[in-house]
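Structure tokens please, single chain.
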Amino acid sequence: MKRCRHGGETLKRARRLRAEGSFAAALDDYLAVLADHPADTTVCRRPILMETAWLAYALGCSELAGVCASAAYQEAVLGRAEAPALLLMALVDAGKGERERSEQRLGEARARARWSPALRRRIRLGAVVVGVLASADGEALRGRGRRDRALARLAYACALDIRDHPDEAAEHFARARAEFERLRPVRRLRRRGRPGARRYRDALAELGWAGAVAGQGRSAPDAQLAAATLAARGATERAMRLNPDLPPAERRNPSLFLYADDTLVKRWSDLIGGDPDRSWLTPADAETLVSRLIDVYGRLRATDPDHFTPGDRLTARTLALYGDRMGYPGLALEASRAELRIARSEAGTGDELGWEQVAWVLRRQAVCLRDAGVADGRIPLLVEAAELYRQNTTTESGRNTVRRLGDEIVSLHLAGGDWASATAATVASQRRLAAMSGDDPLPGIAAALGMLHAKSLNNAPPGVAHGLATERTEVLRILTGRDPATFAGEYGEHLLTLMHSRPDVTGPVREASTLARGLGNAVLRLRVTREAARRMLTDRPDEALAILDEAIAAGPLPKGAAAEEAEAHRLRADCLRLLGREAEQVNALRREAEVKLRYAGSTFPHQRLLTIEDVLWKAGRIDAALALVDKAVDAVSDGSDAAGMLRLRRTERAAELLRDAEALEELAVVAERYPLLAARCQAAYGLVHWRAQRRDDAIAALDESLRLFDGQHYARQMRGVFRRMLGDSRAAFDDLTMAARVGPCRWTTRAALSETHLLLGDGEAAVREGHLAADLAPGQAATHAAYGLALLATGDRREALDELDAAMALRRTFAPLSLPRLLVARGDPEAASREIREAMETDPAPYLVWETAIDLRQLAAALPETADGCATMLQVLALAGKPPETGNATG
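Here you go.
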């Protein structure tokens, strides 16, 4: 062993620890000696390098062993000094699977050892291991030294295990164990039950025996002793694999050598599974480990840059990769910061990393920040990494990486609630992608802003979504100006979304109505126009109607666009209604119905067709309403719910036209074919009987309807109204109260309840229900009439007259004979007489005459001051036509 004046006490301690078998601690001291040792003093440095290399190889740290052996080889002067280094380099290369290079070095080692029998034996034994590791045929194990043969047998078994020959490996592990157990140090070890060698060769024998036992698995005899021996020598990772429950005191190993080999660290991180309690590091060790590693490996790099240049950065990288997996996210973070510092210091030198490696260093630190729970600092790292990709590659994989980095940056901004920065990051990411592909960035920006805007609708503070939409509008406006054929449709869709999300903003409406004229897609043109018209409807119905007419007349729509066309006609009808052009409104609704009749299957809009039919009926277009129902019944598939509802409407219209026989025949068919409509059919029977003045039959039919379905509103309200007219006000009140519970927002129920309360003498309740009815349906004369009469009953004449005037202003929504009683209540019997005579000239149905008489009698009972006027109106009614039936209908 060469004396070295540079190592001092550290080298003496290292050699003493090595002799005592404390291999891990010795290896750390050897690294410290090499870190301070001058590189040009090869005579004393080479032996230290080889001692370090063999120690590292014994502990399984192949990377460090190979680096030290390569440095020793470079410093060797004589061939016999080169042979051990070449042998060790061949073993390391073979372990990596580099067959040709390992065999070449083994041949060079043989040539240099031809004058030394001892070296030849070592090389011959090493050749067996190299042969197996390199997938070649190994030589037979021969040699004079029992310890060397045992170590070679162990290496041979390990090589077989690596090459996935478990049966052969198990055989040779057993044979290696048997050979080790013939050695005196191993016999002493087994006798004492604890490691106690005081010479390097003895400690190496103990380590070899423990390795042979470990190769046989946890169930092998002496496994506990072997694990303790491995731990004592510094091979903690192998000790823990043999005995996972190794006591903490025996598995603590903060040695630096391990981190020069990421394979060892990965195996260790997999073994402990992120549980620091099973680690070889204490929390205090972890805190100081990075600074020690960077200091020692940094000095090694400064002393011998040719061999140790990447050492400090690679060890930091190893910890950054696996620190979190070992349960030390803080350790991984500090290592990643050190790795980035070293990488930046290498910029502009011969050791400079490639741009992609630097990008990975940046991304690795961002991951470590995330795992350590540090919120700040990730975004600048990711931005810098994305810029490196932008500047240096145009490949598809590079663009995908930039896209992922951009998404992550945006997500981080959003997690912090910084929507402005998220928007800027979105734009910047799209510009990078466009720069890499050579494309225009604006289309990508528009699409990305659209996705961000969609997220903002649910998660962002007020105003953010509008800002994003405005920015996207600007981009799409520019793109549409450049290439209308490509982007006008997308611009139109965006304006539609904008109008939906901000109905109070008028700018998109004006822009949309202008854009629609130039859209080539007829369906989209109609959709944009329709939405713009919807926004104008309340304030500017004339403008809305104009742009709808223009869009409908612009060109034919494809067959699949019936829904869009029907909706446009529906909106036209709303415009015409607001403009007071009722005849045109009805025509628009008829046109909507014609389009909707073309619908098929489950999309058939029977409810909307029923609504249109009702408008036509009330507008006096009786023939058109009946024709619409007939066409709808023919268009829909028989047996469906829609068909049942349409046929039921047809029976109701027949009843209103007093075609009782036809109505009853149709009801019988509907009740038989559509059992689910049985209750509704019974209610319709009740209406038919009532209008035919078979009042007992009507009540019986309604009773049956409610027996079939007690929770329905329609039959309950109808029976309540009929009972009131028949004079049973208390029963009527019960029915109408229940109907109000079922349908609390039905104005017809509230108006009927108001009049029932009036008959029962509860004026305050009548006012309350009448007021609610008027609020629910301010456009219906009946609600104002009920409210006005209730106010008269409570003495509020002035407001009552206002409500009665409002009702008479809406007389078009009244039945012909409903107005006289209001005129009587106002104190104008002459006008009431004129109304009765005019109405009777139209030959109203008998049941309507009877109902009018009942209304007058009940008005006289509720408001005694109207009794004379009501009596006079009954005489006029009798003179003008068939005298109404008499009876007690005052309740």
